[in-house]
Amino acid sequence: MRDETRFEITVTVNGAARRLRVPARRLLSDCLRHDLGLTGTHVGCEHGVCGCCTVLLDGRPVRSCLTFAVTVDGSKITTVEGLAPGDGRLSPVQRAFAECHGLQCGFCTPGFLCTVTALLADNPAPTEDEVLEGISGNLCRCTGYQNIVKAVHRAAELRAEES
Amino acid sequence: MTTKLFGEPVQRREDHRLLTGGGRYVDDLGRDALAAAFVRSPHAHARIRDIDVTAALDVEGLVAIYTWDDLPERVGRPLPLLIPHPALTHGRTALPLARDVVRHVGEPVVMVVATDRYAAEDVCARIEVDYEPLKPVVGPEQAVSGVHLVHDDVPGNVGAHLVQEVPGPDGRGAREAIETAPHTLSFRLDIERSAATPLEGRGVYARWDGRDLRVYSSTQTSTSVRMAVSAVLGVPLPQVEVIAPDVGGGFGVKIVHPWPEEILVPWAAMTLGREVKWTEDRREHFVASAHERGQVQHVRVGFDDDGRLLGLDVTILHDHGAYTPYGIIVPIVTSTQLLGPYKVGAYRVEFSSLYTNTVQVTPYRGAGRPQGVFCMERTMDKIARRLGKDRAEVRAANFIQPEDFPYDQGMTFQDGRPLIYDSGDYPRMLRMLKELIGWDDFERAPGRGIGIGCYVEGTGPGPYEGGHVQITSDGQVHVSTGLTSQGQGHETAFAQIAATELGVPIERVSVVTGDTRRLGYAVGTFASRAAVVSGNAIALACRKVREKALRVAADALEADPADLEITEGVVHVAGAPQASMPLSTVAVLANPLRYAFDEETARATQFAGAADPNRPPVAEGDEPGLEGREFYSPIRCTFAAGMHAAIVETDPDTAEIRIVRYAVVHDCGNLINPMIVEGQIHGGVAQGVGGALYERMVYDEHGQLVNASFMDFLMPYATEVPHVETAHLQTPSPLNPLGIKGAGEAGVIPVSAVVASALEDAEGIPIDRMPISPSELFHLRTSGR
């Protein structure tokens, strides 16, 4: 078998420009986890259903397991490692998840955090139905979602207090 | 106990790392490791004629291809039968790689190691296995017919057959009691297969340095994996370390061990002298790990005019899939926990545990209880319907009363010990539930019904767990226990216990679980046992360390240990806070030193004058250091209980089913952290809702699992799970020092029974199978059943 052709891409990941050479078939999830060592992005199904691998691509949530790394050349990506403002503090969404016990095993959590960060950026004060709709593309097997829903409302409050 | 944290909703100490991408799951480790992948059987039952790897040999990145023939004798043996039982007369386990016959789709046949997973899968795709298909056996009823066999040497596909009988108060057997009962009913119930389905699949990563082997596994039992790996690979136990790092959910499936991959990945790492890692993908998890639930039950019951049970006779066909590595724990749990909070009169239960050409069946959260509770609670509803009585009233008529404890059900439980309930208050629990859901005021309407389900759960089985507690010279408290964590918040709950017992701020306590480097003796996390068994072991270890701290401090402060207390990490004379010493100093003094490493530790060196020169620095029978290890070994299980109620609405046209309200009253004895317990209940109920309405493993007649993806196996999203209202009753367990009972599985256990009860109430149609989809409900309506 011949060597795979590699393509050079430049991506801004959590604020830092990264240059990579990737085969065409390399998934963005694998690129983030294994090429860049950003293992906070998790892979739960590799067919785009569970939402564990959700990252923000130019601010919008996408399934990194359904995205080829080569297609994000020139984009900005935020992963769970880039959600906190730095200096040891957590983002309002992260704090709300801790406060409301919105996570147990933590495997789906990075996907939820990215999804909810984008949801609240779009809609800072979602209704109960909008919250349910907003997180209805992410599976969690531990929490039964009740505390995640609570955390989304709490995050909206924390964001409002800080703005 | 001055720092009271036991019982408080303390925020979780594991959250910060999990919220910032700092978790360490198996696949996050070993970035430079070689990747393993497996060629798995596409057939449910076939003979392997030939394996041809020629076309795969020139794939860039290939390192090794292994078939069963390549394995050394001890590595190629059948995997262990973990829990033998006299009734399991025909236990069978898989080989790590299939030799000549495959018995379910997904069984591993060839192992490939390559530079990365992409290359490994390229290799797998080019390996050709020639199979001669054999007749598959699918479903327990086909199995029991015995026409085709899963294992040639297992007649009738029967792995185990067990009859247990408990006579009634008058000494008569169940069948006789039913014959003469004023009322009798007989019916059949069906429960389909589901699976634990943690969002992180299994994974194994191994490192071998020529002498020592370190294995990371996404397991619920690192100590047992260690013993199995040591035995199979022939590496002495002290040279094997097994670590369960962060684990992305378990729910039972990860208690099975050693998986083929847990043997093969370390073996390949040793053989190749390279780090090797395997990460299960989702399809592999569906077809190559384990399932649960699937049972057919035939029930006969006799009862009196008040609905009191006189005799119950249950025959169960249990589908255990292709192999029985976990023995017959699931049908034993079904048979025993079926009894719930009731006195059943005379009881007879018989099960046949049957081989089929499907994925093996091992415990999934609830572990046979959801099926048993479904059986008993359907029975209660049918009795109420027959007598025209309120369903709650019929249950109440059969309850074990508070003054009856300890109550002996007369059976042998899954831990091999008598089924004796330790404590509980079922009548009060029912009153609480009725009030919470508004049972007596419920307004019934067409398409709107209310349902109820009760259960008792034996939690915290032995044999034992240990706790190790060490206070270091910086005053930090390091706690470890050998069992593992998969999201239950052990780092928090165990820190609460330690902080409370020792009188230190929780910020100074850190907890490590599932790391055999820290504690080599443990059993594992299953059967709602971690809080009960490890929690009590840690409390005992803390008490031992506290006693030593008081003794050492008493010497230094020239006080009586009985007059000392520990508050906020400082040992002081009660009522005289000026005579005090921080635990950091006590830790220094507890370890006589020749060599200081800072100013504080200089106090413990040999010229510092702290020690009596006429006594040995470490007294006879004492040990250096401020640390202690204790084990807690329960005499038998402690019995938690719960009652759930739901209100459902159904659509008159589409038969869509909606759970409008869901209420839970739960009793797990003393609560360590109510926030965590509630979270466990919420998650359990969500899994129960999945099992009642959405999740099933659909096998076709060829033994193909046709819905082996999250697109077709429907796990509930936030939009499908009702808000859960909870209330707690706390009847402490008299069996353990902390008075606690387990909570991990509680939420899931009665949900199918509750939903069936509510649906039956809404529709007026008997609901005798779970799960039930809108289309099935629609057909039930139109078939007039």
UniProtKB/TrEMBL annotation, chain A:
Residues 7-83 form the 2Fe-2S ferredoxin-type domain. GO terms for molecular function: 2 iron, 2 sulfur cluster binding; metal ion binding; oxidoreductase activity. It comes from the Bacteria. Pathway: Alkaloid degradation; nicotine degradation. Keywords: 2Fe-2S, Iron, Iron-sulfur, Metal-binding, Oxidoreductase. Signal peptide: none annotated. Gene3D superfamilies: 3.10.20.30, [2Fe-2S]-binding domain (1.10.150.120). Pfam families: Fer2, Fer2_2. PROSITE patterns: 2FE2S_FER_2. InterPro entries: 2Fe-2S-bd (IPR002888), 2Fe-2S-bd_dom_sf (IPR036884), 2Fe-2S_ferredoxin-like_sf (IPR036010), 2Fe-2S_ferredoxin-type (IPR001041), Beta-grasp_dom_sf (IPR012675), Diverse_Oxidoreductases (IPR051452). This is Carbon-monoxide dehydrogenase small subunit. It comes from Nonomuraea maritima.
From TrEMBL, chain B:
The keyword Hydrolase does not apply. Keywords: Molybdenum, Oxidoreductase. InterPro entries: Ald_Oxase/Xan_DH_a/b (IPR000674), Ald_Oxase/Xan_DH_a/b_sf (IPR036856), Ald_Oxase/xanthine_DH-like (IPR016208), AldOxase/xan_DH_MoCoBD1 (IPR008274), AldOxase/xan_DH_MoCoBD2 (IPR046867), AldOxase/xan_DH_Mopterin-bd_sf (IPR037165). The keyword Oxidoreductase applies. Residues 20-135 form the Aldehyde oxidase/xanthine dehydrogenase a/b hammerhead domain. Signal peptide: none annotated. It comes from the Bacteria. One of its GO terms (molecular function) is iron ion binding. NCBIfam families: CODH_aero_grp5 (NF040766). PANTHER family: ALDEHYDE OXIDASE 1-RELATED, XANTHINE DEHYDROGENASE. This is CO or xanthine dehydrogenase, Mo-binding subunit. The lineage of its organism: Bacteria, Bacillati, Actinomycetota, Actinomycetes, Streptosporangiales.
